[in-house]
Amino acid sequence: MSKKILLLFISEHSGHHCASRAIEKALRTIDPAIETLNINSFNYTNPILEKVINRAYMGVVMRTPEVWEYLYDNPKVLKNTQKLRAMIHRFNTGKLKTLLDDFKPDVIICTQAFPCGMIADYKKSLNISIPLIGVLTDYAPHSYWVFNDVDKYIVPSAETGKKLIDNGVDPSKVEEFGIPIDPDFIGSRSKDEICGEIGIDRSLPCVLIMGGTQGLGPIRNVARLLDASSIKLQVIIATGTNNKAYRWLKRRRFRKKFIVLPFAENVNDLMRVATVIVTKPGGITTAEALAAGVPMLILHPLPGQEAMNTRFLLKEGVAVKAESPEDVVVVLDELLYNVSKLKMMSGKAVALSKPDSAMNIARLTMVLAA
Predict the structure, then answer these.
(1) Pair (335, 359) in one structural domain
(2) Domain hosting residue 293, numbered range
(3) How far apart are CA 17 and CA 5, in angstroms?
């Protein structure tokens, strides 16, 4: 009989969803007959609350990021919200029971702390032994991840794992597999083939500008400044789900070669032909850039997880940081001039990458499901 795997994430346009889809694809690669259910858990249990919280979160990080920086992984906030989180988990118990009774999963995989906590509390309160895997998609393991009833934690790095262990997680539960990305991310296509298809001139540096799945950040301003600069380059911009930025960029007449794309399914190809990527350091984007060996120029990381990702990447020597869109031009000019540094950063990125993470998670899942 084929196994059943339940995957839980939050928010459709998020790295958590990308991670759960990557794991789902890896599971089906191992066993095409496997049955998976990939659910936006917040929408499933609290559809109205999901919209309220998503809007509130975006409003805070965009308008008052210092507030989110204070709230993120703050022990006082964690303690003060314990009763509220317990109440939400109890409120969701009925829907969770229906879901688990109907689907009967052999393993549950959560790519975000909220559903991981719900399932862990559910397991504890009803004394259920379904294996639960928590998959971290950032280099900063905040305290909301720590639950006794999680069977395995998948972490991006040894440093991330140590932080979980320091918070009381059993070392035997921690697996350093990396952040899961599409198993096909590193393909066999040549750069010449990809450049010809996209329309890239291999004799010029290619800068890829991204703002994550939602196309956040000052993409338009960076594009305008690069176009006006004296740097000889070509630019690819992937605007994600930010349709406003996409329309603005498509209407603009650039002096340099600009390729403007909406939500891109071929991020692996774009990164493989890029000399540098200008981006926010979201977990999935970071893991993909490392796998592609493309140096990162970080601009405007969100407080909390992205700020912590930035510190990790700068420490490892695979990224540089610009303080403003104007600073991007200066830093990029210096970086493109220093070919040896670019090569060194690329090599470090590849050495740090874990492109097989999704497959390794899938293999572990099948062992736990046996």
Answers:
(1) no
(2) 191-352
(3) 15
Q: Are residues 168 and 305 in the same domain?
A: no
What DSSP assignment string belongs to 196-255? Answer: HHHT--TTS-EEEEE-TTTT-SSHHHHHHHHHHSS---EEEEE-TT-HHHHHHHHHS--S
Number of folded domains in the chain? Answer: 2
Are 223 and 136 in the same domain?
no
User: Same domain for 237 and 127?
Assistant: no
Write the CATH number for 144: 3.40.50.2000
Indicate the DSSP class of residue 354. -
Contact 255/227 with Cβ under 8 angstroms? yes
* Alpha-carbon gap, residue 201 to 195, rounded angstroms: 7
Burial (0-12, 13-18, 19+ Cβ within 10 Å), 71:
middle
DSSP conformation class of 317: T
Q: What is the pTM of this model?
A: 0.88
360 shares its domain with 346: no
Other CB atoms within 10 Å distance of the CB of residue 102: 8
pLDDT tens series, the chain, 370 aa: 789 999 999 888 788 999 999 999 999 999 999 999 999 987 777 666 556 556 655 565 556 665 555 555 556 655 556 665 566 656 567 788 889 999 999 999 999 988 898 899 889 888 889 999 999 999 888 778 999 999 999 999 999 999 999 999 999 999 999 999 998 887 778 889 999 999 999 999 999 999 877 777 889 999 999 999 999 999 999 998 889 999 999 999 999 999 999 888 889 999 999 999 999 999 999 999 999 999 999 998 988 889 999 999 999 999 999 999 999 999 999 999 999 999 999 999 999 999 999 999 999 999 999 8
Tell me, yes or no, whether 67 and 127 share the same domain: yes
